[in-house]
Write a structure and sequence with these properties.
about 40% helix; alpha+beta
Length: about 450
């Protein structure tokens, strides 16, 4: 190769190379005989640097066994076979030396002492070395010029690169300005997003406070019936903690005397119909349960909303009304004078047999009718309206109020009216007992 390392050599004992001195690594330049080394180095380097891969030839004269010898050196770049590609082939060819020139006879006065053969050989060797040095110098000059051209080309490339770098720097400056502008926009967007986050947090707080202030236990379930959100009142019916968000509703235990909640929720998702029913709690209270689909703003179904309204007082009031009605009915039926039990809207809750018989009316025309509309409006007596209104508004009562009135079915009758509020307790409906004493017969006596 161009460093002189030998990969294959033939004729290692030739007169051009000295045998190796036992070094494990052979180098052609170290093995070349005296007079060959300088030209051999020049030829190898030139062949390695040749762009056209043309062979480099040199003709040298050296001394071999103290006699002159002409040597043709050829250095060739190898391209094939593939295993030798990139290596240099160095060949040596020995030729007979040219005929010796006859010395020119000089004048006897100018004769010099003839040189000995050894001196003559030394002179020839020095001349050859001088010639080699000149050729080496010429090669070095050519290599220097080539290097200068390469440096000039490199300098032009560097200048071009510098211009490109300047252009890139300008682009980077522009990009920097764009990045600053983008950063300002991002800062503005970030501020807007932070404002939206604050608003969402405020809305979330408002919703939580709203849900808790209504007193209605509320559960939000997703489409897989997992807990999405719940309010404080829901913890009274279900054993819920904040970490239960995401758990299926079927995994939770409740205080309800009802086991069909999961099935009802599935039915709501399938049919999208609202389910309402009254549910009893294990502590004896009652809740009005309502299951409805959770609809988004774009009308997509994303779960179920379950609410539980406390109806314990309503149930108690209804039960008490039922009990009061039953009691009043039993009392009224035992009295022989006509009686009416009115509610706080002045509708007939019940009446006794004496009333139906005296005024010749049927129960279906009396019960649940306004007192003024009984019998087609025959009880629409202005003074009766006023008196009953006072009973309702001031819990007042009246006794012995005499009324004369013409009834289409039974004619003119004279009656003593007595009215009193039966129930005056808080949170319970008022009932009014209206007693009608028919004194028509007494008035007709002389």
């Amino acid at each position: 190769n161009e460093e002189g390392d030998i990969y294959f050599i033939q004729g290692r004992t030739s007169p051009f190379l000295e045998p190796p001195t036992g070094h494990p690594h052979m180098n052609l330049f170290d093995m070349a005989r005296r007079g060959l080394r300088l030209d051999l180095v020049t030829a190898v380097r030139k062949a390695a640097a040749a762009g056209s891969r043309e062979p480099v030839r040199r003709t040298l004269e050296i001394l071999s066994d103290d006699r002159p010898l002409t040597v043709d050196i050829e250095v060739t770049w190898l391209d094939e076979p593939d295993m030798l590609r990139g290596l240099l082939l160095v060949t040596f060819n020995a030729r007979e030396p040219a005929a010796e020139k006859q010395p020119i006879k000089e004048e006897p006065a100018k004769k010099k002492k003839p040189l000995s053969d050894r001196e003559q050989g030394r002179v020839q060797e020095l001349e050859l070395e001088l010639q080699h040095m000149r050729e080496s110098l010429q090669t070095t000059v050519e290599e220097l010029e080539t290097s200068n051209e390469e440096l000039r080309a490199s300098n032009e490339e560097l200048q071009s690169t510098n211009e490109e770098l300047q252009s890139t720097n300008e682009e980077l400056e522009t990009s920097k300005e764009e990045m600053q502008s983008l950063n300002e926009e991002l800062t503005t967007v970030n501020a807007e997003l932070q404002s939206m986050v604050d608003e969402l947090a405020q809305v979330s707080d408002d919703m939580i406070n709203l849900l808790n202030s209504t007193g209605v236990a509320t559960l939000f379930l997703d489409n897989q019936l997992r807990i999405n959100r719940f309010n404080q009142q829901a913890t009274e019916l279900f054993k819920l903690i904040s970490s239960d968000v995401g758990r299926p509703i079927s995994d939770l235990t409740s205080n309800l005397d009802y086991t069909g909640l999961v099935d009802d929720a599935k039915r709501v998702l399938e049919t999208l119909k609202i389910i309402e029913m009254e549910i009893r709690v294990k502590d004896g209270t009652w809740r009005q349960m309502r299951l409805s689909p959770y609809r988004t703003s774009d009308n997509a179904i994303e779960g179920v909303v379950i609410t539980f309204v406390d109806i314990t007082e309503l149930k108690s009031s209804a039960r008490f009304s039922e009990e009061a009605r039953s009691l009043a009915d039993r009392i009224v039926q035992t009295v022989r004078i006509p009686l009416l039990i009115l509610d706080d809207k002045l509708r007939v809750v019940t009446s006794n047999r004496a009333f139906y018989e005296t005024f010749r009316l049927k129960p279906k025309l009396v019960e649940e009718e306004l007192v003024y509309e009984i019998g087609g409006g025959e009880w629409d007596i202005p003074e009766l309206r006023r008196l009953l209104g006072e009973v309702l508004s001031r819990n007042a009562s009246f006794e012995g109020y005499q009324v004369r009135h013409d009834f289409p079915r039974i004619g003119r009758h004279v009656m003593n009216l007595n009215a009193k509020a039966l129930i005056e307790e808080k949170n319970r409906p008022h009932l009014i007992l209206l007693a009608i004493e028919d004194i028509t017969a007494e008035e007709s006596q002389p």
